[in-house]
Write a structure and sequence with these properties.
It is a single chain. The chain is an alpha/beta fold. The chain folds into 3 domains: 104 residues, no CATH class; 236 residues, Type I PLP-dependent aspartate aminotransferase-like (Major domain) (Aspartate Aminotransferase, domain 2, 3-Layer(aba) Sandwich); 108 residues, Alpha-Beta Complex (Aspartate Aminotransferase, domain 1), CATH 3.90.1150. It is 37% helix and 17% strand. It contains 14 helices and 19 strands. The strands form 5 sheets. A 7-stranded mixed beta sheet has the order 5-11-10-9-8-6-7, sandwiched between helices. Strands 1-2-3-17 form a 4-stranded mixed beta sheet. A hairpin with a 2-residue loop joins β1 and β2. The longest helix has 19 residues. The radius of gyration is 23 Å and the shape is globular. The termini are far apart.
Length: 484
Amino acid sequence: MTVAPPNLASAVPALEHLPLLARLPAVRRAIDEILSELRRTQASMTGIRGADPSKSESYVAWLKRNGELRGRPTMYPYIGAGFGNGALVQLADESVKWDMISSIGVNMFGHSDPRMVEAALESALSDVCMQGNLQHNADVLAVSEILVAEAGRTSRLRHCFVTNSGCMANENALKICQQKTKSAPRVIALRDCFMGRSTTMSQIGDTPAYRQGLVQNILVDYMPFYDPMLGARSTELAVAKLRELIERYPKQHSCFVMEVVQGEGGFNLAPREFLESLMRVCREASIPVWVDEVQTFGRTEEMFAFQASGLGEYVDVVTIGKLSQVCACLFAEDFNPGPGLIAGTFSSSTSAFHVGRRALEILRDGDYYGPNGRIARLHQAFRTAATDLIARRPEFFPPVIDGQGRTFGETMGGIGGMMRLTPLGGKKDQLNALLQLLFEEGVIALTCGHGPYHLRLLPPIGVMEPAQFKPVFEVIERALGRTR
């Protein structure tokens, strides 16, 4: 099915998105001077570095105070210095580490990228710090127009409502779907999904610890995600389960929300046939299809993961966030909600709009997407480095047993900028200990999955070079050596 691209009022002249002051020649010269100084300072940061011993006492005191203010210590002893060079970040104790999680996917262009700094400097000259739903500048239009144009190439998505968090974008999506279905009380979701941490999104997300002590406020029916060990049989079973739910609760489902690639659930992949089969059943039953791309957006071989999977014709609502800096809910014309349903005092900060717009433009116009794009090449470099480590050090990669007692086939996986490695048998406690050793050695990472567990990498794919995986994997190997 070919979807007609949206008509974005091409006859309307483009709005100037830069603040008035940022356009003045003297101000441009000052910004250029700052960026030149930034590049000169970055030139000496080429690899990991240990902490300055003279900063140890004050750094420990800061960490202690941070834990007191939060009510508990942070996962890592991390306080940033506000400076870095791409995939390298400097902490307040002057140590330098490889950032392979980029604030769980937020900082796609790493640290102190001159292009992002330039956009932030321009935004600082705006009249306001925060943009809102009631009053906003041209920044909101600029970001929304890019998102709608890119999404609309292969889907019916025509509208965009921006907000300041992925969780809030998901809340808006749910409200839109509920209004469309006249208050249908149930939601269909995939097992191992993650939706955010509001009270409602915690209920939909399939992690019991994230809703412990919360009052149930929505009814959720969970569907199995694709099981590669079952192959085509997995699709057959899932379709049968979906039809059973629809028959049991006729016209009771407001939506089927799905991640095309599961993020926190383990960077799990599903073939197009699996997802398309479920979406077709939803279409037959008039159940809206909502795709959550808060983590996948921008990280596959297309800007949207649903595009990479060729599923645009089935999508009614999509949510995005993280690397876009500004989060958003996109929806089809027939899902346009009534006045007052979605709003909010804050859309996001002016700097988030400027930096997000710059990031989207670079992704759209650069050599990032497609089977030979930067993202695909970076993923291949990860797999090459992982394959080498697995072959040389098999003792770090014992058999992995899944929750059903089966041997888990892959010790590495993921797609595009979402990468996973499964050492130490995929055991949670051992991987958590590994994360601390990695941090000490100079690599920041996280885990994903619900058993088995995986080492999760979300590197800053906007700036990271394939060759940089060599020093990163040298650190991973050293840290694994310390686990034995």
